């Protein structure tokens, strides 16, 4: 199984992170077919990467500025049977691609996603993680590291791009975009990532481009199966500013806005099915658990219970605002328009 790995980059401030991500892909037990670096409208960074990484495919984002456009560019440049995506501030465990590859023996599987663990503040630096033999990357039992804020609930780890409490191995509605892979033909079925949904240089941290894509893929190919495999492990860096409550609140509100765009594109039934289950089952359990811990003397338990409650409220508010203001579906790229014909 040939797997092309796409890494989207946009700023030289993440130079060491980008090199660490590339090094981790090079060290995979299942060797990548190719590594494609997509540079988002930053010629200086593109030239620097081209000079430093001559054995890689380095291409400029030829679509709209932002993560969705970068991914669409990467897909167009890829020649592997499968296209995998890794964030530019993440590193992959050596068995990451092997865990993806084993699922593609089943022709019904259109995509596979993995477990994303947090590199909280205080974790090893990107320079340290450029060593493929680093103990973190080769741990028998992978785990997050660094200093997780005591109030930060695991049920909301999605706000920092990580796997969250409530995800279970097996079939899943949608994969998380920074740790995902798809058969290349899936893009011919569903088109590309919607460029009016994912992260751009907008002041709000919008997201959900992978959610909308996965739902659209399954709507257009009803037999397509998406799988979550926790053995496909990566670590995603959480900068100090994203470990603060102010960012948590903004991210929750932005997620609500993004979900309004998703439901406008794919419908509320599919667009909110997983969110309803998470809100009605997982979050109440998290609140109860936090309150029990607080009653036993762990003050942070009360903070987690409050963060879950406030996070749900801010996400719901963002969705309500988004639903009230969205007037037309997100702009699609040419490949998506062609797929509709």
Automatic annotation (TrEMBL):
This is GT2 family glycosyltransferase. It comes from the Bacteria. It holds the Pfam family Glycos_transf_2. Keywords: Glycosyltransferase, Transferase. Belongs to the glycosyltransferase 2 family. The keyword Glycosyltransferase applies. Gene3D superfamilies: Spore Coat Polysaccharide Biosynthesis Protein SpsA, Chain A. InterPro entries: Glyco_trans_2-like (IPR001173), Nucleotide-diphossugar_trans (IPR029044). It comes from Thermomonospora cellulosilytica. Residues 4-115 form the Glycosyltransferase 2-like domain.
């Amino acid at each position: 199984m040939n797997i092309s790995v796409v890494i989207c980059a946009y700023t030289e401030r993440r130079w060491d992170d980008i090199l660490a991500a590339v090094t981790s892909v090079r060290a995979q037990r299942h060797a990548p077919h190719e590594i494609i670096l997509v540079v988002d409208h930053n010629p200086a960074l593109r030239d620097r990467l081209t000079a430093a990484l001559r054995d890689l495919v380095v291409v400029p984002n030829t679509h709209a500025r932002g993560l969705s456009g970068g991914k669409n560019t990467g897909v167009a440049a890829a020649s592997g049977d499968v296209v995998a995506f890794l964030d530019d501030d993440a590193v992959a465990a050596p068995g990451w691609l092997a865990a993806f590859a084993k699922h593609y023996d089943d022709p019904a599987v259109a995509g596979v996603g993995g477990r994303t663990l947090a590199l909280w503040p205080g974790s090893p630096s990107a320079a340290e993680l450029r060593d493929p033999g680093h103990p973190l990357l080769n741990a028998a039992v992978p785990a997050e590291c660094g200093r997780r804020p005591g109030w930060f609930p695991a049920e909301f780890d999605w706000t920092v791009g990580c796997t969250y409490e409530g995800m279970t191995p097996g079939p899943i509605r949608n994969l998380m975009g920074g740790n995902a892979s798809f058969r290349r033909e899936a893009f011919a079925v569903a088109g590309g990532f919607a460029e009016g949904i994912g992260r751009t240089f907008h002041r709000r941290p919008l997201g959900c481009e992978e959610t909308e894509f996965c739902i659209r893929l399954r709507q257009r190919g009803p037999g397509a199966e998406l799988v979550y495999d926790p053995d496909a492990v990566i670590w995603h860096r959480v900068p100090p500013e994203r470990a603060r409550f102010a960012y948590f609140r903004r991210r929750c509100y932005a997620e609500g806005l993004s979900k309004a765009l998703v439901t406008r594109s794919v419908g509320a039934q599919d667009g909110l099915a997983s969110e309803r289950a998470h809100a009605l089952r997982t979050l109440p359990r998290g609140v109860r658990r936090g309150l029990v811990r607080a009653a036993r003397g762990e003050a942070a338990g009360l903070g987690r219970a409050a963060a879950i409650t406030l996070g749900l409220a801010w996400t719901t508010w963002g969705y309500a605002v988004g639903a009230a203001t969205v007037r037309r579906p997100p702009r699609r790229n040419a490949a998506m328009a062609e797929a509709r014909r």
